[in-house]
Amino acid sequence: MTQTSALAVAPSETRSVGPQARAWLDANLPDALREDMLQDNKPTVADLCDWEARLHKAGLVGSTWPEAYGGRGLGLRAHLDISREIGRTPMPESVNSIGKELAGPIIMAVGREDQKLDYLPAILEMRDIWCQGFSEPNAGSDLAGLRTKAEKTADGWVVNGQKIWTSGASKSSRCLLLARTGSVEDRHRGLVLFALRTDTPGVDIREIQSIDGERSFCEVFFNNVVIPEEDMLGSPDEGWAAATRVLSIERATNRMHRSWRFENQLNHLVSACAANPATRKLVEVDYARQLADVSVNIDLLKGHVETLVGSLIDGNEIGPRGSLPKLFWSEAHQNFATLALEIVSRFPPDMSDPLRAVRRRMEDIYMKARAETIYAGTTEIQLGIIAKRILKLNQGK
Amino acid sequence: MSDLDFSPEDFSDTARAVMEACATAADLPARIALLAEAGLTGILAPEDDGGMGLALDYAVPVLREAGAGFLAAPLLETMLLARAFAGQDVAAEIAGGKTLATIAWVGEISGQGGVVGRAPLGAEVASVLVFRTDGTAVLVTLGDGAEAQADDSLDLERPEATITVKDVNGPTLDATQVKALLHAAQILRSALILGASEDALKRAADYAQERVQFGKPLSAYQAVQHHLARQCLAVETIRNSIARSLSAHCETPVAAARATFVGSCDLGAFVAENAIQVHGGMGFTWDVPLHRHLRFARTLAAQGKAAELKEDVMQQLLSGQDKEKEPAHG
Fold first, then answer.
1. Three-state SS for B246?
2. CB distance B216–A396 less than 8 Å?
3. Is residue A135 within 8 Å of residue A164, measured between CB atoms?
4. Which value, to the nearest 10 degrees, does the dihedral of the CA atoms of residues A269, A270, A272, A275 take?
5. Closest by Cα among A260, A372, A268 to A305
6. Homologous superfamily of A18-124 in CATH?
7. Is B21 part of the contact surface with chain A (CB cutoff 8 Å)?
8. Contact (CB<8Å) A291/B314
9. Which of A157, B90, B151, B158: disulfide with A227, CB 3.0–4.6 Å?
């Protein structure tokens, strides 16, 4: 077991950092975190924080962040190389992806220097887990309708309102909170961003059980919550404007590893079935054609991701084109999950541990996949974006 | 190629103009002459053979325009043959448009000869590349030990022919050259499908915005918008996958080219089918050319053996062989 950095030498943009990342992950992923092995107990938040802190120490997290904030100062190409290897590794999703892929980049864009130095290293070192307080009961896809109110007083900002679908709020220490200074009629004007400590008096977090059995989702209530002025991110209006710019890039690049994780799931299913005489026919004959279609879709998805990364490196704007990989990935993965569920439903009752492990994994993927066409903009929202902003169709108005 | 002061996209406008000229040309020799005059037949052939010596990505916009413009010529085959026979006399003849040639994509002959098929415009050319059971290929001359018979063909612009070979003689390609040709063909076919799909989507989007029903253009209806958005996703998926297959950063170019082609066949047919759907009854008429794109996409799938390639994909999955460890390809 090595704890030294996998990326001891800062590589140039042309040399892949992938092989070093691969070697580190192979040597260091604990069996207890492997998603392709049968686990008696789910890893705890503490286990996951420990693992993710080690990933950061090894240089596999925050690769594109400046070194002053705990990053490696590398480019997007290196991030893609590392993401591929993370995807190929059957490890849990980050418990702090909101911190690493949303709050962090927004803080970098609009935060004061003291905020950056305070918040950013804490995200990578897993001292702070972030959640995102954007959606509300009446402002889901239509975020500009949000009602949570922030009033400026002598003691700081006083916040009242409610957020919902706040993933991971009960495990988090910070919330990227979006509130408004004026009235709902102001729509996109008067929105203000805060880095709220979730242990602030008046913050009430309640878990919501989701269809996969998890309790990650939360509702968060704010009752006269006082937020000090220094925890505001950017000025009112400015913070949100910058945040939306960051969001359009993040939507296109977040969880860049997912095509390779998807491939890892497919390979796990196929290899586990092929290794057992009782299930070999399922993949060699019965579902061979559909599994080949899944494999082709994974390559097509890589086409979206890699071309988009290349385009960002060339300095192009992504804009509405971020909807293309999101839509393609969510539907392809959901279709795979449905196929995988049918295949594992035909496993014999006296199945071996490896088969039990793949069945449990595929069942979990199937239930979780229901959310994939909903979060980060539903399928219907993505299709609308493509129709209106890419095809620019005449809306007849 | 990075020192070139022009990019692949710089060929689009020229290519589009040539395709428009070809649409009104009298016959195949006239069309090949127009293509050769613009240098497009020899775009991949070495400069020593009278070509432009450009990389594969320069052929993509040209074939995209050919697909969009219903080009009735075996341009993909001509480009590939002029490149594959580099250094042999026939390369210059094909690159220069002097010898009309095509490829019989399906079937193999033995040493004694045999019957092969799916040669686009095989009944109108002078030479046909025929694959052999040992993995090599030979360029036979029609009327000299080989005969072409026009076949029933789904594709209207490039009707296919069956080739009967009795005497096997002509310039040959070794197995490595054949492999390289087949790999390139997968990407270039995808470029043809990309062009056909772009044109089908454009026609559907234009029609939906012109056609008014119940006081609104069809494009104002969300059901129609979502149809068109899905077609757009399909077109962009083909485009991005071609780009990935040709990128120096692609880890698995062989698997990527195969997936690009197999995916493009399904996606290209999807776009054409849905463009017909958006046109309603008009879409089912012979005069609306969407069926020509659909016929083309389906025929290209058969010529490139898309269905068989899915079996290869599955074999690779089952072998547990990492795609990234794929053998380097010429």
1. helix
2. yes
3. yes
4. 170
5. A260
6. Acyl-CoA dehydrogenase/oxidase, N-terminal domain (1.10.540.10)
7. no
8. yes
9. A157
The rounded radius of gyration (Å) of the Cα atoms in chain A is 22
Please give the average per-residue pLDDT across B223-242, as a whole number: 98
Q: What residues in A contact B239, CB-CB < 8 Å?
A: 307
CATH of range A255-390; options 1.10.3720.10, 3.40.190.10, 1.25.40.10, 1.20.140.10: 1.20.140.10
Q: Nearest 5 degrees, angle CA B324-CA B325-CA B330?
A: 95
Q: Encode B193-214: b = buried (16+ Cβ within 10 Å), e = exposed.
A: bbbbbbbbbebbbebbbebeee
Query: How many whole angstroms from its chain centre is CA B325?
Result: 28
Q: Do A303 and B251 touch (CB under 8 A)?
A: no
**CATH class of segment(s) A130-235:** mainly beta
B326 band by pLDDT with thresholds 50, 70 and 90: low
**ipTM above threshold 0.85:** yes
Residue B216 three-state SS:
strand
Residue ranges of B 192-211 with Cβ closer than 8 A to chain A: 205, 208-209
pLDDT score of B325: 55
As annotated, the residues of chain A forming the CATH 1.10.540.10 domain(s) are 18-124
Nearest residue on chain B to A275, alpha-carbon basis: B318
